[in-house]
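Pilot study result, target chain (161 residues):
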Amino acid sequence: MVKGYRHFFYGGGEGVAQRLADRLCRQYPGLIVAGTCTPPFHSLSAAEDRAIVREINDAAPDIVWVGLSTPKQERWMDAHVGRVRSVLIGVGAAFDFHAGTKKQAPRWMQRSGLEWLFRLGMEPRRLWRRYLRNNPEFIWRVLLQAAGVARYELCADSELH
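Predicted structure:
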């Protein structure tokens, strides 16, 4: 973490963002944590969303680290570009790993690109649908684009075309 930047941690389960901030501040003296927020698991009402945007902007962070699940964090960041006046970086489960609330895959699995398999083994009920649906679709689209059959671009509405 670069000294001087103000960081805001948005996401994670109850208390995870604050636990992460506390742990990182001990590990990196001088780290500036502008704030933390754990949103509720339900869809935010317009009023709740405005309150969270106000809380983040009032804290004036340079970087907002977004630790929501995929694709929720990507959708949240897309919807808040320009509303949240900071750089938004999606980090998924990194909050849990660095806060010490979830075990990370052994190094050899990480280096082999198999962390997804470890995570699936740890949380099968939560992740099986995502991996069964998203991974084959991603591989199929990569193959189509590599073969020159299709070209995918991210459009303003955040859908692939």
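One observation from the pilot: The chain has two domains: 1-102, 105-161. A full batch analysis is planned for the follow-on phase.
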